[in-house]
């Protein structure tokens, strides 16, 4: 892992862009960036479960303020799990071009502020939920899956 990231403990840091750095995982200390609003980790080499990624990010206070999570073009696996509910401020969740499978948890549809959901180009199998009509989603990108 990149050792220059370890000193990041600022509560003032609002945006962190780590695109294209060949990261293979998310260190737990990123969950302690209480002021983080946007985290972009597109185009890396993360081959972790989506639930593990979210658990690492929610291990501290990051889940409270995070509005944008951009994790496209990695190798995330698993389904869009229930632990996403801790991210109640999330507005943008972009997960395209990964290896996600299974279904989209009802908790994703129930995120109170979610406006953009991009799960295109994965292997998701279940998409429809009884809660989809109650969402605030303005942009939905489900193309190129296994529905």
Automatic annotation (TrEMBL):
Coiled coil: none annotated. It is a single-pass type I membrane protein. Keywords: Glycoprotein, Membrane, Signal, Transmembrane, Transmembrane helix. This is Uncharacterized protein. Pfam families: LRR_1, LRR_8. PANTHER family: LEUCINE-RICH RECEPTOR-LIKE KINASE FAMILY PROTEIN, LRR RECEPTOR-LIKE KINASE. InterPro entries: Leu-rich_rpt (IPR001611), LRR_dom_sf (IPR032675), RLP23-like (IPR046956). It is found in: Membrane. It comes from the Eukaryota. GO terms for cellular component: membrane.
């Amino acid at each position: 892992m990149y050792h220059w990231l370890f000193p990041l403990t600022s509560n003032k840091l609002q945006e962190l862009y780590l695109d294209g750095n060949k990261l293979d995982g998310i260190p737990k200390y990123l969950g302690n960036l209480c002021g983080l609003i946007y985290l972009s980790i597109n185009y890396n080499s993360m081959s972790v479960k989506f639930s593990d990624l979210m658990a690492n990010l929610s291990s501290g206070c990051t889940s409270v303020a995070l509005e944008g999570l951009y994790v496209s073009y990695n190798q995330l696996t698993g389904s869009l799990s229930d632990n996403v509910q801790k991210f109640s401020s999330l507005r943008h969740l972009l997960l395209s071009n990964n290896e996600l499978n299974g279904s989209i948890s009802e908790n994703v549809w129930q995120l109170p502020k979610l406006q953009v959901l991009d799960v295109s180009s994965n292997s998701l199998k279940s998409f429809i939920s009884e809660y989809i009509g109650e969402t605030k989603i303005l942009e939905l990108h489900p193309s190129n899956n296994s529905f």
